[in-house]
Amino acid sequence: MSSVSARSHVGSGVVSRWSLRILGLGFLALLLVAPLVIIFFETFKDGIQPPLDAITSPNGLHALKLSLLMVAIAVPLNTVFGVACALLLVRHKWKGNGLIDSVINLPFALSPVVIGLALYLLYSTNGGWFGPTLAEAGLEVLFSVPGMVLASIFVSLPFVVRETVPVLQEIGTEQEQAASTLGANAWQTFWRVTLPAIRWGVAYGVVLTTARVLGEFGAVTIVSGSISGKTETLPLFVSKEFERFSEPGAYGASLVLALLALMTLLAMNLLKRKEDA
Amino acid sequence: MEANPAALPNPVAPRAGIRLPGVGVGLGRGYVVLYLSLMVLIPLAALVDESLSSGVGNFWDQVSSPQAVRSLELTLVASLIVVAINAVFGTIIAWLLVRDEFPGKAAVNAIIDLPFALPTIVASLTLLALYGNESPFGIDIAFTRTAVVVALLFVTLPFVVRAVQPLLIEMDREMEEAAASLGASGFTIFRRIIFPNLIPGLAAGVALAFARALGEFGSVLIFAGGLPDTQVSSVFIRSQVESGNETGAAAVSMVLLLASLLCLAAISLIQRWGSRHERSTGGGLVMPMAGEMPSETAKKEGDDELR
Questions:
Q1: Do A276 and B241 touch (CB under 8 A)?
Q2: Prediction ipTM score
Q3: Looking at chain B, which terminus has fewer C-beta neighbours within 10 angstroms, N or C?
Q4: Nearest-CA residue of chain B relative to A264?
Q5: Domains (ranges, CATH) in chain B?
Q6: In this predicted model, what pLDDT tens digit does every residue of B202-250 receive, in sequence order?
Q7: Which residues of A touch B186 (CB under 8 A)?
Q8: CATH number for the domain including A96?
Q9: Whole domain around residue A33: which residue ranges?
Q10: Residue A227's closest CA among A141, A151, A144?
């Protein structure tokens, strides 16, 4: 292979190779690895009991449950939407597709605080477009779970679409055509041919969506009001505990979130390998 | 040998895939448009409406208030510094991951995505522990503008790496070999051959990182705080909401929204311009982390099963 000989040309000098390594890996060590390591240190510096007590306190457990509830609602909704939207974008030409594509990218580029504020203004009972009507119907959106769900959906909306579109383009349509020639209807073709072919791409999108929902802070902080034991997810709990100078709580919950992040990285890696296999 | 799959002529018309009956397509489209409107467009419309609710003059007053201008300036300058640093280090790291061999390379490659997975508030807390007044390294930069830059560096780190990496993997090494055999030095080869090929990825990565940096909130909050001197725009917006000035918050939000739209437009232009490399993009933004999705395998699998 040519790769071996080519490698000897650029960055080949012992000095330049080592200076690149020291620069690049040093940057990573200070910026990524050190923060990860210090969470463990800070959490357990007074033993295992204080962080454990803080996480298992009623407010801590409630925050954990609420975070899982966000995932349980937002992830399936965005997954179904993502697959349907990707299918339409790739397989059915339409003049509105360009616009849909642009709108889907917006949550990537938009500040979570701006997203939170937009929802806040829409559902405010004090002059929002939807707020007063919904309040009359007895539905509290702001400072309550539905608003937090909406914020979670908004911020994590693009992932499944973006991961599914390229896979759909690559699998092509030959097998689907074969299936329909053999008499399968659209629904059967989707379940038996298309979905199995795109499953790892969709799964990758689901992992990213889940991580985003679990970690969301800016948008949720605006719409939830961060009421302890009521509208506090784990990231909000971290922030609140920090403000209260309760380090075991802040670091204990951070450790839980960091472990979830590491599991996310692991899942991302496994899924990439699945695709390679 | 293996040409880019997307560049291969597709023998079948693209419409021949899953054929939903006409009604199904209509329903699907209705669902997608409704979902996007309810979840994204209507809330943003409410934001636009609120920002202009007391007239254009008031909008301008809010945006040009000294505090607002100060926060916008800090956000812009910090974001520019951050993307410049990330462009350099992101390229170096991508280079190490593709062209170098060292023990633990797989783990390094995996941890690059950590900022995507780690909640921003956790990042802020740990950065404070590391580089605050109890710093184990003796570096105390908490609640300064440097802290804003470091926090933004953390959250935007993966973008350039993940955008440049696939281009380095795909790059044809024969040109480099030719240049080397003609006597070009390593640096000349990088400057004249490698770097020009990386520009599309680098530009897209930088634009994404810039958009992300402009709107970042959680990672800055604890580490840099909301002092007048360290208040980025999103922190300023939150403080305006808390003090009941919703119109002011909406006005500054409009500036950020506009900046996001510009970044997205830039990314889309960059990708159209860079699409002589023709990766299968779906005509939209490709997340850098998606860049690692093995594109060749899926295609190969499909072909094999056909044979």
A1: no
A2: 0.89
A3: N
A4: B117
A5: 52-295 (1.10.3720.10)
A6: 998 999 999 999 999 999 999 998 888 899 999 999 999 989 888 889 9
A7: 9-13, 16
A8: 1.10.3720.10
A9: 1-43
A10: A144
